[in-house]
Amino acid sequence: MKADYIWMNGEMVAFDEAKIHVLSHVVHYGSGVFEGMRAYTVNGKAAIFRLDDHIKRLYEGIKVYRMEAPYTQEEYKKAVLDTLRANKLKSAYIRPLYYRGMNSLGVNPKPCPVDALIAAWEWGAYLGDEAIEKGIKAKISSWTRSAPNTFPTMVKACGNYLSGQLIKMEALELGFDEGIALDVNGNLAEGSGENLFIVKDGVIYTTPISSSILCGITRDTVMKICEKFGYRVVEQTLPREFLYMADEVFFTGTAAELTGVTQVDHQVIGDGYVGEVTKRIQQEYFDIVNGRVTYDESWLTFVEDE
Ligand code: PMP
């Protein structure tokens, strides 16, 4: 994780100088809302995938947490492009964040300023270089996702990731690559940082909003790929055993991209290899983000030289 600059409250700050006060509200209470985006190199230029959709989700989160954003969506989008330009990045993982800064440490965040940053750096495959090709091993987590009336899971908020950390650490400690959390009713929810898809008898299933998931932008892209390929997609609550009965299982996420799951709880999924349907959708996804196939012109925002 290294770059030249981080954009902070409208200024490009040298990477090593990009600091916040230890008494910032976010440090103590997780009071922030963020995004995770990727830029891919398309025709020699960086192109951010679904920038508008990520910024929209960020600003929806800001609204839920009653933050007053100091920048409009257009201004913030421009700052994202400036950050990639300042760092001369042709491909990147991009991390925009709005957070409550320092003023008071009462639980009420309102007296604290809403500060903003945008960082970007080069980041390879999130679940490891081999994962995209060979798939990963997952386990059902002993940690449940938060109930609907506790934290808003549709918001990508800093504090939500305490749940993700427990899921991820438990999986790694037990020798798995990732955990899959159930929702409060015991149905399947999602991975610590990925949405979940299951292929069974030619139908593609994914878990619904009501299962306390983050509605992934990659999930949406995959649904559109399925539509083009003529696969039926069913969004419904799914019991745990559906995983073990599956022909194929895969995760989706901006960081994880499309990653096959070849084992769950030591049970082999299908024939134990990344499945044919998964591979087909994965290939199409990489064709889209790399500009070889176009679904929607607005999905790629090019970082033009100024
Ligand atoms: N669920 C969780 C909990 C996540 O953190 C992410 C990553 N942002 C996802 C799902 C996938 O979302 P997206 O495809 O928008 O990256």
UniProtKB/TrEMBL annotation:
Keywords: Amino-acid biosynthesis, Aminotransferase, Branched-chain amino acid biosynthesis, Pyridoxal phosphate, Transferase. GO terms for cellular component: cytosol. PROSITE patterns: AA_TRANSFER_CLASS_4. Its cofactor is pyridoxal 5'-phosphate. GO terms for molecular function: branched-chain-amino-acid transaminase activity. It is an enzyme of class 2 (transferase). The keyword Cytoplasm does not apply. GO terms for biological process: amino acid biosynthetic process; branched-chain amino acid biosynthetic process. Pathway: Amino-acid biosynthesis; L-isoleucine biosynthesis; L-isoleucine from 2-oxobutanoate: step 4/4; Amino-acid biosynthesis; L-valine biosynthesis; L-valine from pyruvate: step 4/4; Amino-acid biosynthesis; L-leucine biosynthesis; L-leucine from 3-methyl-2-oxobutanoate: step 4/4. InterPro entries: Aminotrans_IV, Aminotrans_IV_CS, Aminotransferase-like, B_amino_transI, BCAT-like_C, BCAT-like_N, BCAT_family, Class-IV_PLP-Dep_Aminotrnsfr. The keyword Amino-acid biosynthesis applies. Its EC number is 2.6.1.42. It comes from the Bacteria. It catalyses: L-leucine + 2-oxoglutarate = 4-methyl-2-oxopentanoate + L-glutamate; L-isoleucine + 2-oxoglutarate = (S)-3-methyl-2-oxopentanoate + L-glutamate; L-valine + 2-oxoglutarate = 3-methyl-2-oxobutanoate + L-glutamate. It holds the Pfam family Aminotran_4. Acts on leucine, isoleucine and valine. Belongs to the class-IV pyridoxal-phosphate-dependent aminotransferase family. This is Branched-chain-amino-acid aminotransferase. It comes from Propionigenium maris DSM 9537.
